[in-house]
Amino acid sequence: MENSGRLLGMDIEADIIEFKVPNENNKTLFVWDILPTLSEAFIYESICGVFSGFGALYLVKVCQNAAVAEPGFYAIVKYYSSAQASKAQRTTDGKSLFQESPVKVRLCTRQNPAFASETKALSNPKCQELANRYLGFNGWSSKIITLQDLSGGDGACTGAETQALTLKYGCIVELTFPQHCLSCRGTGVAEESFQSHPDHLELCLTRGKLQKRAKDKALVDAFRNVLLVLLSNGKVAVECRFDPDQVLPVEDLQGLIKVNDISWSQCAGAGEEDFLSDLSLNASHWS
C-alpha cells in the first residue's frame, strides 16, 4: 500500500500509517558521525527528542562503530511513515543537532529480501502508543464484546491416567473512534497445555494470564484493520477495514462462539505476542 498521495484529486496530501511493523527501507534512517565522548544514554534521549518531532518512532537504537572504523557511535531510527522519514532526513542531515560537530543522516538503501514482504503486526503496547500519538488518549476506546472459555476438556482423571489439560480462551474486542463515528473488531485466542494436572493456584494464575493474552491479541487484531490518514493540514482521518467473514455483527442476541483448531506460528523475538494463523471464527451470536 502506498504511504502517501492525494485525496480524490484535491490539493491535500495524505500520509497513510498502518498498525504493522515498518520493514520498508524508506522508513529507516541511519545517523552517522556521533562523537565517542557522548554516552549511549545521552545519545538515545537526544535522538528520540530530535527525530520524534517529525513523527511517531517505531525504533531508536544506538550502536558503537565497528572496530575497523573511527571510534564513535551511529544510530538507527525507524518511522512508521516514509514521508516523515524523508522529511527528517532532509531537515537534519549535516546539522549539529545535539553535539558540536554535524552528523550525517541517510535513508537506508539496503534491505534484506527476507523481510521486504513480511507483514508483522505491532505489539499491543506499540498499537496503543501509536494511537495515542495521533488520536490522543480520548480519541479511541476499546471494549470486550465477549471473552469465553474454549477449553475442550476438563482434565479429569480416567482410570490410572490423567488426561493432558489444555486451557483455551477466545476474545472479541471492539475498537471505537468516537470523533470519526467508526468502529471495528478483532479476535484473539490464547491456549496453554499441561502434561500433569496443575494445582488450584497454578490453574487460576494460568486462566488469568490466558484471558489477558487473548484480550491483547484481539486488540492487536482489531488495530490491524485500522488506517491512520495524516493530512497535510494537520488533521488525522481514520479508516477501518471490515471483513464480514471474520466477525458477524449480530447484536442483542445470546449464543456461542465456535473456534476451529488453531495452528500457531511463533515469530522470532515476539515472546508472548504470538500471532494467530488459520483462525476460522463463526460468531452467530454475541453474549
Order of strands in the sheet with most strands: 1-2-12-13
Major beta sheet summary: 4 strands, antiparallel
Shape: globular
The helix fraction, in percent, is 10-25%
Ranges with pLDDT <50 over ≥5 residues?
A: 154-162, 247-287
Tally of DSSP helical segments: 5
What separation lies between the terminal Cα atoms? 36 Å
Order of helices and strands: EEEHEEHEHHEEEEEHEEEEEE
Strand-residue proportion:
25-35%
Total beta strand runs: 17
Could you say which structural class the secondary elements and strand pairing correspond to? Answer: alpha+beta
Backbone CA Rg: 23 Å
Mean pLDDT: 80
What does this structure look like?
This protein has 287 residues and is of the alpha+beta class. It contains five helices and 17 strands. It has helices at residues 40-51, 82-92, 113-116, 124-135, 200-223, and strands spanning 4-6, 13-18, 28-34, 57-64, 73-79, 104-107, 141-149, 157-158, 161-162, 165-177, 182-194, 226-231, 236-240, 257-259, 263-265, 275-277, 281-283. The strands form six sheets. A four-stranded antiparallel sheet has the order 1-2-12-13, with no helix packed on it. Strand 8 (157-158) and strand 9 (161-162) form a beta hairpin. The longest helix has 24 residues, at 200-223. The radius of gyration is 23 Å and the shape is globular. It starts with a strand and ends with a strand.
